[in-house]
Write a structure and sequence with these properties.
Length: about 110
């Protein structure tokens, strides 16, 4: 367990930097909560291989599923976080707190 400034963000940055130093062209991040549909990983990799730089799971999209999402978190995602991040990104994002993602080296 890491203690000190940065927390999980610092841990992820270290892991991604290590993967890049090892020569990986991208990474897939999966939360350890048994809620992510890992069968989607080949699709994430295909998206990276065909030029996507960022792929994110979406529990609100077609085929998505919410599992034990507390109502207050659901409301915060849908009414606050996703609209604000979408505004900053200049494009609509719907599940901005979902930790099931893939990133390209690009």
């Amino acid at each position: 367990m890491m203690h000190g400034p940065g927390g999980q963000s610092a841990q992820l940055r270290l892991a991604f930097a290590y993967a890049m130093r090892q020569g990986y062209e991208g990474v897939v991040q999966v939360d350890g909560n048994n809620k992510d549909g890992v069968e989607a990983i080949p699709g994430f990799l295909d998206a990276l291989d065909t030029g996507a730089d960022y792929v994110q799971g979406n529990r609100f999209g077609p085929g998505g599923e919410q599992v034990n999402t507390p109502l207050v978190r659901l409301l915060a995602i849908r009414a606050l976080h996703a609209p604000l991040v979408s505004l900053a990104a200049g494009r609509r994002l719907s599940d901005t707190t979902n930790g099931f993602r893939a990133y390209s080296r690009r």
